[in-house]
Design a protein that fits this description.
0% strand; 163 residues
Length: 163
């Protein structure tokens, strides 16, 4: 077969997919990477949601001093481009000169487990402001009458949050 650029191609059909399932040298690493992809996606969303939710619930109280300034500071990581943030984190985790890496270095760049933990930490820093913004917007859209009625009825903070 010849493609539009004049190079010869060969149709392999499903041969590559069968090789992934049958060849042990490919199947083992593929399954590990495949599983980590789903674990990373799940943990990444879960951790950013939980931290965003906790911060949004804490910042939703009108009694917090300098509330607007604190909200701006919490959103700041979202405003900094990710490629700059990642470079900063690489510097922080540097085992020789980094603030975190020089004091506590379990192997951020050498051990596969700790590298994954480091990736999750960086992603948490990059992702929690988005969840914070979304949840703050949702909390502010709830009329204060509902919270007042719940307090009059004797509902505690957890019941108010849940219902």
């Amino acid at each position: 077969l010849q493609d539009a650029f004049g190079t010869h191609t060969q149709f392999v059909g499903l041969e590559n997919f069968t090789k992934i399932l049958t060849d042990p040298a490919i199947r083992g690493p593929f399954l590990i990477i495949f599983a980590w992809t789903f674990i990373w996606a799940f943990l990444s969303v879960l951790e950013t949601f939980i931290l965003g939710l906790i911060l949004a619930l804490n910042m939703n109280s009108p009694d917090i001093p300098m509330q607007r300034l604190l909200r701006v500071l919490l959103i700041l990581p979202y405003a900094i481009p990710p490629f700059i943030t990642v470079k900063v984190w690489v510097g922080l985790l540097n085992p020789v000169l980094g603030v975190i890496g020089s004091n506590w270095n379990p192997g951020w760049f050498t051990d596969p487990f700790w590298a994954k933990i480091g990736i999750l930490m960086v992603n948490l820093w990059l992702g929690f402001p988005y969840m914070f913004l979304i949840i703050t917007g949702a909390l502010q859209s709830i009329p204060s009458d509902i919270y007042e009625a719940a307090r009059v009825d004797g509902a505690g903070p957890f019941y108010q949050f849940r219902h």
